[in-house]
Amino acid sequence: MQSRATKPPEITPDLVLQAYSIGLFPMAEKADQDHLFWVDPEARGIFPLDELIVSKSLAKMVRSDRYEIRIDGDFDAVIEGCAAPAEERGQTWINGPIRRLYRMLFDRGDVHTVEAWREGMLVGGLYGVSLGAAFFGESMFHRSRDASKVALVHLVARLRRGGFRLLDTQFVTPHLESLGAVEVPRARYKALLEEAVSASADRVLAFERIALSGADALAALKAPQRGPAGSGSVG
After folding, report:
1. Which domains does the chain have, with CATH numbers?
2. Which of 152-156, 162-166, 176-180, 226-230 has the lowest mean pLDDT?
3. In the chain, fewer beta carbons within 10 Å around the N or the C end?
């Protein structure tokens, strides 16, 4: 009797969130391919939320409010920017299934964008997945000087305000390392992940669309971090 091949389970938004909760995330080889695979790196990149490196020049840029920072304004434009080829990352891994899945997660409130606008144009930003008190940064881009860095500063400020415990960056590049990203072994990451996913964070406080000035964002980086219940420090 000939055995029949088992069709892989359909990747749904719920399956994506379940995967994140145990340390996996989906990727594609190329933008023109339709299949996805799960990644579980031996070393994982994270941004310690109290150790973001903000240079004097970057702090000056943030404080200047040169860029208007918007939250969850235009997901499609952000993922399009992240998918565009760039010299520092080459070809994109963001394919059709990635776009569809994360758009559905965005519509459900599980994906958020931090966007940098200048004179009515989107010039940089990032998007990622929110789960419990963890935020999983997926991709970032810039078309204007320091736009993605300014978006990152605002993201970390908002995560701290909302009592988040973990900012995942998947891998560490020299660019991310210069901003404070570090690698941790898989076992250590899984421990941090379990603690963060099982905790609660204030998504409204973190991702409310009320504008946060650059000065307010920089102040939030120095203020005591809110605990998962909205008070106290996260150890």
Report:
1. 13-31+42-221 (3.40.630.70)
2. 226-230
3. N
User: Buried (b) or exposed (e) across 138-153, using 16+ Cβ within 10 A?
Assistant: bbbbbbbebbbbbbbb
State which amino acid sits at residue 217.
A
Amino acid at 13: P
Identify the DSSP state of 90: B
pLDDT, tens only, 115-165: 999 999 999 999 999 999 999 999 999 999 999 999 999 999 999 999 999
Q: Which residue has the tokens 């702090």?
A: 59
Strand ranges (E), 63-110: 68-71
Cβ contact 69:62 at 8 Å: no
Other Cβ atoms closer than 10 A to 102 = 25
